[in-house]
Automatic annotation (TrEMBL):
Protein known as: acetate--CoA ligase
Biological process per Gene Ontology, one example term: acetyl-CoA biosynthetic process
Organism per entry: Actinomycetospora cinnamomea
One Pfam family from the record: AMP-binding
Classification via InterPro entries: AMP-bd_C (IPR025110), AMP-bd_C_sf (IPR045851), AMP-binding_CS (IPR020845), AMP-dep_synth/lig_dom (IPR000873), ANL_N_sf (IPR042099)
Length: 591
């Protein structure tokens, strides 16, 4: 089996240098003890752990380094971040917003977003971040489901995304508009207020109220196949897992410059784009602008980024751009690269090792888990294409599956797969702090996510003899062809090993004989063009490597559907192929 070995010097400097020892000695109680807690034993509050505890002893340390669209670089210390978030918490009180009420953000990556997010948590309200590229209906749908009381957004986004739906949002009492107050509606119009006016009028200094670790803190919406998004509820205790997993999986500490490219409208952009790095006292890089390969390389070099957390799609786009762009920059500060959001192909891991000087460390988790569960670690060798192994404090297993592809339940229990290399549903033993506490208003749906003390992830994996996990696909993505169960990711990875293929997506297409046929959609790299010869070459290439489960059909599609976070939407490809309802389209990237 292919292995990328880590030099001894890399192992020694890792914050978790010995995985086996860490698993033996780690406890969640010990991780909880690394949090300072509210003064006077008044509980645990995410914003206190992320801001206030550092502002007292390390107030001059840089918390946020904001790269603005106009090219300016602004630094905000922990002491200044405390002052600004205190003012926002006081502003919420002045508006009469009660503890437990939900504050939504619909904001680009600007300083205001981080002030609102952390100030909301200080006030004991629940933060629900939305992706700023959502259209009017997805925004209104989430505000309705979440009974949003407050929305912070820009004048432009308000006019385009919210005002057309405002009459259908009876719970929304306050809209706080960022930026220049002169650019938006007058204060009071339709319940609108200029955020800056509120902050100017608010007092410095805020005492965070007693916060039980089980108090709701975060509401993250994740798309469902039925067209109705699910609202996953997380509590303040989740910060314990954010902090601990950032150490183990991201090798993160207080001396790091950390860049998480995920938008805070997604769970990654909140858990690891706000909370985790700040609980460590690190410097968090905030980039207002969108992806551009040359500029991203500039950011890595000029800002001396040490730990970088990004998406496989972005890494594949950088790889397509060529190695020369990386070689022209000084990336010597970069010591750890990690990816999240979708499976990471082995080719990208190798490319990163050769071009960036360190392999990409894939990791796996979900909105519902709240934090990284399975990872490749800084101090350990990497098996390219593997998700890695469970983090200390996390017990994972593979469960036998029934005809519907989900975990087989017999008499209320489940059965574990004991043979290495056999596919099954990934399950996690309940008990870590960031596990979601419910789907908002959907108790039955929440209960169905658990069986026999396990959280059922809905992802199909296999575990090798050494305990490494390998992603096969979602339970509802797995293709049943001629008696075989085929994981789409395995086929996609093989296709992407061909030099012509930049991206690939695989679905099952109904067939009266085989049950389903494997059909592939591919996007070509620059310099390659569709042709009958290339089509036949790709089919043959896959057949040589996969045998009978190789694609029977293949089409070139330069516009594969992606979510706004970069994941290819296989379900949408399948729905279009079969003429079925397309389900929830709120997260689909639009051109």
């Amino acid at each position: 089996m292919e292995l990328i070995e880590k030099p001894e010097a890399v192992r020694r400097r890792a914050r978790m240098p010995d995985y086996a020892r860490a698993r033996r000695t780690f406890t969640w109680a010990g991780a909880r003890a690394q949090m300072s807690g509210l003064p006077g034993g008044r509980g645990l509050n995410i914003a206190h752990e992320a801001v206030d505890r550092h502002a007292t002893g390390r107030g001059d340390a840089v918390a946020l380094r904001v790269l603005s669209r106009d090219g300016a670089v602004d630094e905000v210390t922990y002491a200044e971040l405390r002052r600004r978030t205190d003012r926002f918490a006081n502003a919420l009180r002045a508006l009469g917003v009660a503890r437990g009420e939900r504050v939504f953000t619909l904001l680009p990556r600007t300083l205001d977003l981080y002030v609102v997010a952390l100030g909301t948590l200080k006030a004991g309200c629940v933060l629900s971040p939305l992706f700023s590229a959502f259209g009017p209906e997805p925004v209104a749908q989430r505000l309705r489901l979440g009974e949003g009381r407050v929305l912070a957004t820009t004048p432009r986004l308000y006019e385009r995304r919210v005002r057309p739906q405002r009459a259908d949002l009876p719970d929304l009492r306050h809209v706080l508009l960022t930026g220049d107050p002169a650019e938006g509606p007058d204060d009071g119009e339709e319940g609108c207020s200029a955020l800056q006016h509120l902050l100017d009028a608010a007092e410095d200094g805020f005492t965070i109220p007693p916060t039980d670790p089980e108090d709701p803190a975060l509401l993250h919406f994740t798309s469902g196949t039925t067209g109705r998004p699910k609202g996953a509820v997380h509590v303040h205790e989740a910060a314990v897992a954010h902090h601990a997993t950032a150490t183990a999986a991201l090798d993160l500490g207080p001396d790091d410059v950390f860049w998480c490219t995920a938008d805070p409208g997604w769970v990654t952009g909140t858990s690891y784009g706000i909370v985790a790095p700040l609980t460590h006292g690190a410097t968090l890089l905030v980039d207002e602008r969108d992806f551009d390969a040359e500029r991203w390389y500039d950011v890595l070099a000029e800002q001396r980024v040490t730990v970088w957390y990004t998406a496989p799609t972005a890494l594949r786009m950088l790889a397509r751009h060529g190695a020369e762009a990386a070689h022209r920059r000084d990336l010597s500060a970069l010591r750890h690269v990690a990816s999240v959001g979708e499976p990471l192909n082995a080719e990208v891991v190798r490319w990163s090792a050769e071009v960036l000087g360190t392999p990409v460390h894939d990791n796996w988790w979900q909105t519902e888990t709240g934090a990284i569960m399975i990872s490749n670690f800084a101090g350990e060798d990497i098996r390219p294409g593997s998700m890695g192994r469970p983090l200390p404090g996390i017990e994972a297993t593979v469960l036998e599956r029934g005809p519907d592809g989900r975990a087989l339940r017999t008499g209320g229990g489940v059965r574990e797969v004991t043979t290495p290399g056999v596919d099954g549903e990934l399950a996690l033993r309940v008990g870590w702090p960031s596990l979601f506490r419910g789907y908002l208003h959907e108790d039955e749906r929440y209960r169905a996510s658990f069986a026999d003390g396990w959280y059922l992830t809905g992802d199909v994996v296999r575990r090798d003899a050494d305990g490494w996990y390998w992603f096969a696909g979602r339970a509802d993505d797995v293709i049943k062809t001629a008696g075989h169960l085929v994981g789409p990711f395995e086929v996609e990875s093989v296709l992407m090993a061909h030099p012509a293929v930049a991206e690939a997506a695989v679905i099952g297409k109904p067939d009266p004989v085989a049950g389903e046929l494997v059909k592939a959609f591919v996007t070509l790299r620059p310099g390659w063009w569709p042709s009958d010869a290339l089509h036949d070459e790709l089919i043959a290439f896959a057949r040589r490597r996969l045998g009978s489960v190789a694609p029977k059909e293949l089409v070139v599609d330069p516009h594969l559907p992606h979510t706004r976070s970069g994941k290819i939407l296989r379900r949408l490809l399948k729905a279009r192929e079969l003429g079925l309802p397309e389900g929830d389209l709120s997260t689909v990237e639009t051109s």
